Amino acid sequence: KENETCLRKYQKRCMQDLHQKLSFGPRYGSLSELESGEEFLEIIEKERKTATIIVHIYEDDIKGCEVLNTCLTSLAGEYSMVRFCKIKASNTGAGDRFTPDVLPTLLVYR
């Protein structure tokens, strides 16, 4: 009887560990700054296929960008299974596509 109880406890713990590994994956919890277009591409290409990645393309001194950064910082704390990133348009390597009139820009990858 004692062996059965120990075995059940062990099975339950193993199942919980497996569930946690399969269900939750990595946790992020913050808005991270990407420094270059290369880093941006690396994040998108090398992240788990099941991951959700949200990238904010911004520039300083654009009010909408500042507000969105504040919102994304808050959301990153709430949704730690989602990877939240930001990158300055001028650092993307495609700055001519991201002129101030199209900022802020939000890209979502899954």
UniProtKB/TrEMBL annotation:
Q: What InterPro entries does the record tag this protein with? A: Phosducin, Phosducin-like_reg, Phosducin_thioredoxin-like_dom, Thioredoxin-like_sf
Q: Which residues form the Phosducin domain?
A: 1-110
Q: Tell me the superkingdom of the source.
A: Eukaryota
Q: Give an example GO biological process.
A: regulation of G protein-coupled receptor signaling pathway
User: What is the annotated signal peptide range for this record?
Assistant: none
Q: Which GO terms describe its cellular component?
A: photoreceptor outer segment
Q: Record's PANTHER family?
A: PHOSDUCIN, PHOSDUCIN-LIKE PROTEIN
- Spell out the family assignment given in the record's similarity comment: Belongs to the phosducin family.
> Protein name, please?
Phosducin
